[in-house]
Write a structure and sequence with these properties.
Layout (H helix, E strand, L loop, with lengths): L4 E5 L3 H12 L3 E6 L10 E4 L2 E4 L10 H12 L3 E4 L3 E2 L5 E2 L4 E4 L5 H8 L3 E5 L3 E7 L2 E6 L4 E5 L1 E4 L3 H4 L7 H8 L6 E8 L16 E3 L5 E6 L11 E6 L1 H6 L5 H16 L5 E9 L7 E3 L4 E3 L4 E3 L4 E3 L8 H20 L1
Parallel strand pairs: 1-2, 1-13, 2-9, 6-15, 13-21, 19-22
Antiparallel strand pairs: 3-4, 5-8, 6-7, 10-11, 11-12, 14-17, 14-18, 15-16, 16-17, 20-21
Helix pairs in contact: 1-3, 1-8
The protein binds flavin-adenine dinucleotide.
Length: about 350
């Protein structure tokens, strides 16, 4: 069966990479994204004049194949190496490790893929319904306005957000119900120190702190990433169990708790110029194991890709963005073959 027009719902790494692959193969693609920007859980935000990564803070090579792809992105200057000084929360040094970061922000990656044409990107459009009729797959927004008729609709969203879009295939809805995503409260802050690029108001010599802590999962000095100039900035990720316990707490209270934990860690309380607190209801998904890392029902014209779909034969345990990457590339390969 050949797919002539494909709708992709979600412009995170999975949806954007899939769109790029399909467009490069000459397939007509339209992408629908409910947010203002692309990147999904690789999102960024502004603190003053500078961007900080608000989702995953970096990419890590979870498998040799993923590493090869990451290095290709580096050679094309879409990603950069980042080798932060690391320690645990008890200040014990950890061995240096190589990570991958974007041009200023990770979401630059999805933006780049989607801006290279000929992809139609619709932002601030939340798809509310996907329905199969004889003439094709119909998409409607959340006010029941029609968005178009397609040969195939690919749902590239976290599992809970896929559930309302999968009414045509109850067995897949059931699969999505099996997923329990982690919650993550996060606080990003920038210190007031415009004039001294080298000066570090935190007094910390390390750039990435991970390990055991009652509240924090990790703390990342965003301003130490290559290309990130400006005052010192940190992003604090709360532990998932703590985030779950305080899922409905007041944002201001969360901000206070995370800042206080960080100030206790650094033994100092420098002046903060900008900050932002964000709650991710779906940070890292659990996964379901399948024969291939995506779902595709040719007859219904519906497919699913993303980080919650894993191939059980996979040698390396992928998760998060590497699972989304493999899911999108595998589905793209299948759809491109089918279109020939
Ligand atoms: C704070 C944080 C830390 C993380 N740390 C790590 C880590 O260390 N290691 C790791 O492997 N992974 C990590 N992750 C997870 C990783 O970022 C994700 O697994 C990956 O980015 C998911 O990509 P995706 O494209 O599959 O989904 P998403 O990025 O979630 O993209 C889905 C997109 O679909 C859009 N959407 C949803 N519903 C609709 C709708 N109805 N209509 C239109 N658009 C819709 C959303 O707005 C979103 O942009 C982290 C995530 C967060 C938030």
């Amino acid at each position: 069966m050949s797919h002539k027009t494909i709708a992709i719902i979600g412009a995170g790494i999975a949806g954007a990479l899939l769109a790029r692959q399909l467009a490069d193969a000459g397939i007509q693609v339209e992408v629908f994204e409910k947010s203002r920007g692309t990147g999904g859980r690789l999102a960024s935000t502004r603190l003053g004049d500078h961007s900080v990564d608000l989702g995953a803070p970096y990419l890590e090579a979870h498998s040799p194949e993923f590493k090869l792809w990451l290095e290709q992105q580096v050679s094309q200057q879409h990603l950069h190496h980042w080798q932060p000084k690391r320690s645990d929360f008890q200040r014990q040094a950890r061995p240096e490790q190589r990570y991958y970061v974007g041009n200023n922000r990770l979401s630059a990656l999805t933006r780049q893929w989607l801006s290279q044409g000929p992809i139609q990107l619709h932002t601030q459009v939340r798809v509310g319904r996907v329905t199969r009729y004889e003439s094709g797959v119909y998409l409607y927004d959340d006010t029941e306005q029609p968005l178009g008729i397609f040969d195939l609709a690919v749902i590239a969203t976290p599992a809970p957000q896929a559930i309302p879009l999968l009414t045509e295939i109850p067995a897949w809805q059931q699969l999505a119900h099996e997923i329990t995503p982690d919650i993550c409260w996060l606080h990003a802050l920038q210190f007031a120190d415009e004039n001294h690029a080298e000066h570090r108001p935190s007094g910390l010599a390390v750039d990435l702190i991970e390990g055991h802590h009652p509240i924090l999962q990790r703390a990342i000095r965003n301003s130490s990433k290559p290309g990130c100039e400006g005052p010192e900035s940190w992003v604090l990720h709360a532990r998932s169990d703590w985030s779950e316990q305080y899922v409905d707490a007041d944002k201001e209270w969360i901000a206070e708790q995370l800042q206080q934990a960080f100030f206790e860690l650094i033994g100092n309380k420098p002046e903060t110029s900008h900050s932002r607190t964000h709650r991710w209801l779906y940070s890292l998904n659990g996964t379901v194991n399948l024969d291939q890392p995506y779902l595709l029902a040719q007859e219904q014209g519906i497919a699913v890709c993303g980080d919650w779909l894993l191939n059980q034969q996979q040698e390396h345990q992928l998760q998060g963005y590497s699972a989304s990457w493999l899911s999108a590339l595998s589905l793209a390969k299948q759809l491109i073959q089918a279109s020939k």
